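Hmm, what's this shape?
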Amino acid sequence: MKSLWSFLRAPATSKAMALEAALLLLIARLLVLYVPLRHWRRRLTTAEEASSLARPPFVAWKVARIIRRVAAWVPFRAVCLPQAMAAQWMLRRRRIPSRLSFGARREPSETATVGLEFHAWLSVGGKCILGGQEVETYAALPPFDEIGLDASAS
């Protein structure tokens, strides 16, 4: 109820951004769940974009904050990848270049079989704005085009 009250008191631009974030989180979640990666990977910017940004602009931090807040109250699991995707799409609409990165680490396990844990984060101007917790513990994976998965191919 407290979240609803703060949403209703928010300025119109923040409400619009929150609704945009909710819609994009839903689209990202559905893509991740039901559509093979080869069909939507070209929508992700994983290679470094040419940018003159020395640091992320205020709006990039605002988008990241709104994505985190909205992800906490949507009625579905909006984990790191859908959050990074939605934030990147919001920033692209605002003409702010960003880089979506993927990483992997060994998942600690008490059994003999050890799995991998994956994580996604978003950077603007070389600074991680979303998904930055424990990024140092993940080994960054190369961009799609460096491993033969050309992002422009279908």
In short: The longest helix spans residues 12-34.
